[in-house]
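G., the chain you wanted modeled:
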Amino acid sequence: MKIIPATGVSSIDVSDVFSAWLYEGNGSTQALANGVDLSASDGLVWIKNRGQADTHVLADTLRGPGEILTSETTAAEATNADTVTAFNDDGFSIGGDVAVNTSAEDYASWTFRKAPRFFDIVTYTGDGVANRDIAHSLDTTVGMMLIKATTVSATTNDWFVYHASLASTEYLKLNLTSAKFTGASLFASTVPSATSFKVNGNSLNEPGTSYVAYLFAHDPVGRSGDGLIACGAAAHTNGTATDVDIGWEPQYILRKLADGIDEWVLVDALRGMPVGGDETYLAAHSSAAESLSNQVELTATGFILPAGHTSGTHIYMAIRRSMKAPATAGDVFAVIDALTATEVVSGFPVDWCLNQRKTAGSTVASARLRQSISYTYSSSGGSAAGADTFTHSESFIGTGHSPSNTSMYYLFKRAAGFFDVVAYTGDGSNGRQQAHSLGVRPELYLTKRHDASASWAVCSLALQDQVGLSPNGRLDSPDDTESANYGLSCSASTSTTFYLDNKAEANAVAGTYTAYLFATVAGISKCGFYTGTGGSQAIDCGFAAGARFVLVKRADSSGDWYIWDSVRGIVVGNDTHQALNTAAAEVSTDDSIDPASSGFIVNQNAATDINIDGAHYIYYAIA
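Predicted structure as C-alpha cells:
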C-alpha cells in the first residue's frame, strides 16, 4: 500500500495530482516526465493514440504496470508488458506497443494521482452480499465513479458510471453511447458518502469477480476556494449556447449527454478548447482517432456548450487549470533563435508565442486558447489565416507560420502572478469587469479584437500611477500612450477581473477578443516605468542575473515598441533589437541597452531615443 499524503487539497496545486501530457511516439521506450509523482502515491494513467484507431490504455498503480484496461470495450484486464512499464516520481514510462508508442505518431495522456478531495482508486473482489459497503478515501462528495470488472464476469463486463447529477437509481456505461439506464439495485439506490459507496447485485458484486473503481470528487470550491475538480450537469437547449459556471477555468473535460445517445467526449486545453473554433477531441467509448468539431469553449469561469448540441442534460467532469506560481523565469518563458524548420522546443507547455522575423516581416502572435487564429502586430487589421499549432507539451509545430532560422520566438506559459490569457465576447458595456486567473491585479494588459479590424490596446499600471490618468496605447502604433483611451484601465482592475469599456478595441457588442495579462513576479518579471535622464541609467527590476527580455516604449510621445533579448545580445556594446509595431528587419548598429545584474541599463542615442531627459517610458522585463 502506498502512502497517501495526509494534507488536504488546500495544500496542493492541481499540477501535483493531474497532468494532460502530449507526446510523440518513438517506437522504443520513453519516460514521460509530466511532473506527477506516481511512486509515492497511487494513480491512474490513461493513454490514447491521437491519429490512429488504437485502443485506449488505462493502467493504474494498484493493478501494476502492464495490467491494462480499455475504456471502449468490455474486455477484462489484459497483461501487456510493452505498454505502461513503470510509475515514476515524475510521471510514467512506456514500452514500444503501438497503442502507446508508435514512432512519429502523436499521443495524448492523462495522469490522475490519488489525493483527498480529488481522486481515489479502489479494488475489491465481489462477494455477492446485498448492499455491500466499499470504503474510499476521497473525504468529500463523490462526483463520478467508473467501475469495471477486471476479471471475466458471468453477468456483465461493462464500464458502469455513477454521476452525482443523476438519480441514485440511474447510471451510464462508459463503453456505450446509450442514454442513462435505470437499475435500483446497482448502487443500492444510495448516494455515496464521503467515505464509502454501496454496490449491489452481480453487475458490481459477483462472487469471485475482481473490480476496480476510479472515484472522482466533486469539490469545486475546496476548503479555501481552491477546489480542483467539479462533476456537474448542464441543461442545454439546441440552438442556444449554454454558459456553465464552475468558478474557475478547466483544463480537462469529460462530457456526455445523459438522457440521449451521445459520445463520451474527452477534451483538454493542451489539444485545444478554443473559443469560437473547433476542438480536437477523443471519445472514451471509441478507439477512433481524434475528431474535430465544436464541443466546448473555455471561459475564465468554466466553459460554454455551443448552440449545436442536442437538447437535454449534459453531465461533465472538469479539472481545474493549474496557475502555479513560477519558481524560475525558465519555467514560464523562453527565447529561441529557431534553428530547425519544423519544431520549436520550449521545455514547458506554451500558451502564447510571438514569432518575430529577423528579416523584414510582421511579428505574429499565436495563443493556445485561439488555436486557429493568429494576429500581426505591425498592422491594426484583423486575424491572420493559419495560426501556429500547439501540438506537444514542450513544443509547438508552426503549421501556419513555419519556424525558420530567420525567426525569433518568445514563448510564454500561463502562471499565477506572471501571465494569463483570456478569451471573451464583448457586451458593449462600460466598466465591465471580466474574470481572469492571474491571481493578482494585472500591471500590463493587452486586448485584441479578431472578428473585425481594430488596434491592439495596451494599458500600463505603472504609467497610470505616474500620470494619474487611465491612458492607453496601441501595440501596433508608435503613438504616445498618455492621452489615448481604448477602453482599458489597470488601476480599475482587480486580482480576479480586468476593466473594459465600450470601445472597438476592448468591448464592442458581440465582438470576439483575446486579452493578455502580465504582472511583476519578484526576481522573474517586472512591469515598470522610468523617467529619462538623457544619458545612461540603470533600471532596477529586482533580478539577480540581468534581463533576458526587455520591452521599452516612450509613453508621453511617439516611440516604437522596442524589444531586446539576451539570445541576440544584451551586452556592453551594440545590441540587436526590433520593434513590435513595424515590419522592419532587426537592427544591430547601436548601443541603446547594456546589461545590469538587477535588470538592464538604458543609454540615450538617436537610434531609439529610450532615455531622453524628462521623457516618460514604460517597460516590461523578464529575468
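The helical segments are 14-17, 98-101, 202-205, 461-467.

Shout if anything looks off.
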